[in-house]
Amino acid sequence: MLHVLDHPLAAHVITHLRDKTTKPATFRTLCYQISLLLAVEATRTLATEPKAIETPLEPMTGRVLAHEPLVVVPILRAGLGMVQPFLDIFPDVSVGYIGLERDHQTAIARSYYCKLPVVTNRRVVLVDPMLATGGSAVKAIDVVRDAGGADITLVSIVSSPEGVAEVQSHYPKLPIFTAALDRGLNAKKYIMPGLGDFGDRLYGT
Ligand code: PRP
Ligand code: URA
Description:
This protein has helices at residues 8-18, 24-42, 84-89, 135-146, 161-170, 198-203, and strands spanning 2-4, 48-54, 59-65, 70-76, 94-95, 97-102, 109-115, 123-127, 130-131, 151-159, 176-181, 184-185, 191-192. It has 205 residues and is of the alpha/beta class. The chain has a single domain, classed as 3-Layer(aba) Sandwich (Rossmann fold). Helix 1 (8-18) runs antiparallel to helix 2 (24-42). Uracil binds next to helix 6.
């Protein structure tokens, strides 16, 4: 299931992210902001449980997040830019890492690192700003599933229809949250109009 973020602030932030004159420091701030909006949207279905408290005026039963630890897994390197909002808003989040790098000629992702916490019986949110061919995302989902993860959500900032179709062909029920669904891929498998190489713009490389 594909969810495209529909919010004026998201549109504003995405436009500045796309702008080629945006410098890395501003790019990182914008990445934080859009990732925060996506983090809120992508966790809308997290379970809550009742909690009895007393306000200064009377007792009441409120609701708090159920004891369902969240796992956020960035796909290195660019996914690192999306982690901080999850750390800031979820008290008990744990973080795993999957390192994948696209070959510049073939656009096929090669795995170079993996360190995951326990993922069984946990909501796992995979974060990667660009969903282009979908090769990296499918590989990362495979890794989490092989480690025992069953409840997986994919969060990207910019997606292509090809990437969405690739993920859906392997995992038809997996929720995908994105801030923009672009036109398609160019010959070099970059998203158009896109925003260029996210990792390079995030880290000034
Ligand atoms: C980018 C991006 C995704 C991947 C998407 O990473 O961050 O991980 O490409 O492309 P795909 O959908 O075609 O697989 P890249 O491989 O450039 O590595 P980086 O994050 O280290 O820059
Ligand atoms: N990776 C990026 O950083 N940008 C693209 O457009 C495609 C893959």
